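User: Could you go from structure to sequence for me? I need the amino acid at each position, not a summary. Structure tokens:
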């Protein structure tokens, strides 16, 4: 079968509804119940307190398709966009939960059933990982499900600390945590990358599609663990990664939604090579920035608004690279609304606001972009391998280039940025006391894409890191 993204969403929710799960709507990208968390970066965010036992719901099983953003703080995939086949800033996470109800066996068995019998993924291409000492999950995979043992990989504390592995998920230094089991799909030997747990894993051949977290402990500050009120399940599967498999393509950027968005970006930029990396970046970023506006985040110089500004400006710069010198990005909004407005009515309801917001930001940035690019080019004209910090600072201060945008340009040219020099220039200007009101944003926070109202993010982003 050739599943569209809409089919995949519906099939997932129908499957878990048939297993007595309550279907819950996606919550906003700005978490309503947690002022300390920058963005919703996984499906569990709206259920955080339920795991801890401080909130109760009228159901013990839930499923959702959650809009997620990983573009700020520790859980940040912004730099991966355009470079890997599997990362977006904005993506949709399919998830199911048990709040003290079923546990490992149902979670994995149903997961396998859904993947192989409903979506009909070829069993021989699937791999699983379990936490190193989780014999229970290992036995479920090998004995109950019957996955050959050479495709079930134990991944543990290879980084030294007992709970530092990829397969032991912790909400934070303290709080809910537990071992997890992840499902990978082998896209084939023509793609570079090694199986899970191998040194080459970080390629795009074996792509992680679904994480099942077995929440059972509450980590204490001294590193000891207490049992949660009840063992819980928290799973998350990337919709776009599953779609790539079901639509017989390798990259997330080749699935139906992205195909249409990339064509729209090509139309607006006049580019004909649809594999152009900048088109992928623009297609990714129109989703992130449009959904952010629809959830109330407008560009600004601090906090969430500064992340929004950085994403928009990165997209504009990629358009500039393709030859655009005037606003184009906002013209993709109707294409996006046509593709996703039905699944996300709030996006459709805010269409005009999104267009106006993006257009205003484009008009503003296009005023300085070209001159800034000339300065950047001039600074590297002698074949330098590093962009001087004072130039990066000038670009930031006078031309509206966030540091990560200059770094993005430099990376394309194999050039690094002198961040220490940038910081020194920033400090110098601050100390000089000029433009006092202009530096609302602390530079350390700027790196993290975080405004000073949210100093706790770095930690809390990590804490909300799911699955
Ligand atoms: P990866 O190792 O590939 O970066 P992850 O381990 O960070 O993924 P999880 O935090 O376990 O991902 O999230 C659960 C699922 O969400 C992943 O298995 C994947 O399918 C999906 N996912 C995670 N990050 C992204 C992203 N940036 N873009 C698209 N899908 C994602
Ligand atoms: Mg990741
Ligand atoms: Mg991973
Ligand atoms: Mg994972």
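Assistant: Here is the amino acid at each position, in order:
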């Amino acid at each position: 079968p050739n599943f569209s993204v809409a089919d995949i969403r519906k099939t997932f929710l129908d499957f878990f509804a048939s297993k007595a799960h309550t279907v819950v709507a996606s919550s906003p990208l700005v978490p309503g119940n947690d002022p300390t968390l920058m963005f919703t970066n996984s499906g569990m965010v709206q259920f955080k307190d339920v795991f801890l036992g401080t909130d109760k719901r009228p159901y013990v099983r839930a499923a959702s398709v959650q809009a997620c953003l990983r573009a700020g703080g520790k859980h940040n995939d912004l730099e991966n966009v355009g470079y890997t086949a599997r990362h977006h800033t904005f993506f949709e996470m399919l998830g199911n939960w048990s709040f003290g109800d079923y546990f490992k066996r149902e979670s994995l068995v149903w997961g396998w059933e859904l993947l192989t019998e409903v979506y009909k993924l070829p069993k021989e291409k699937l791999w699983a990982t379990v936490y190193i000492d989780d014999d229970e999950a290992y036995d479920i995979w090998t004995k109950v499900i019957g996955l050959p043992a050479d495709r079930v990989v134990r991944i543990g504390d290879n980084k030294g600390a007992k709970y530092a592995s990829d397969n032991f998920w912790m909400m934070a230094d303290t709080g809910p945590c537990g071992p997890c089991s992840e499902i990978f799909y082998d896209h084939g030997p023509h793609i570079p990358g090694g199986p899970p747990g191998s040194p080459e894993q970080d390629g795009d051949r074996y792509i992680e599609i679904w994480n099942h977290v077995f929440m059972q402990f509450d980590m204490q500050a001294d590193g000891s663990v207490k049992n949660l009120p009840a063992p819980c399940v928290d799973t998350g599967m990337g919709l776009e990664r599953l779609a790539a498999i079901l639509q017989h393509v390798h990259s997330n950027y080749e699935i139906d939604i992205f195909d249409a968005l990339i064509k729209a970006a090509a139309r607006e930029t006049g580019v004909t090579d649809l594999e152009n990396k900048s088109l992928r970046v623009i297609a990714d970023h129109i989703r992130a920035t449009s959904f952010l506006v629809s959830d109330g985040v407008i560009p600004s110089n601090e906090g969430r608004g500064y992340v929004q500004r950085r994403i928009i400006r990165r997209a504009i710069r990629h358009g500039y690279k393709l030859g655009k010198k005037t606003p184009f990005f906002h013209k993709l909004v109707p294409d996006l609304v046509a593709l996703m407005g039905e699944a996300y009515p709030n996006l459709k309801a805010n269409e005009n606001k999104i267009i106006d917001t993006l257009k205003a930001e484009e008009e503003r940035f296009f005023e300085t972009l070209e001159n800034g690019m000339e300065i950047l080019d001039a600074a590297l004209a002698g074949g330098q391998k590093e962009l001087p910090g004072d130039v990066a600072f000038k670009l930031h201060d006078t031309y509206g280039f966030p540091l990560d945008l200059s770094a993005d340009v430099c990376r394309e040219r194999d050039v690094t940025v002198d961040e220490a020099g940038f910081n020194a220039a920033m400090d110098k200007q601050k100390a000089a006391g000029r433009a006092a009101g202009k530096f609302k944003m602390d530079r350390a926070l700027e790196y993290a894409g975080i405004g000073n109202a949210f100093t706790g993010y770095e930690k809390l982003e990590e804490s909300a890191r799911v699955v």
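One structural detail worth keeping in mind: The mean pLDDT is 89.
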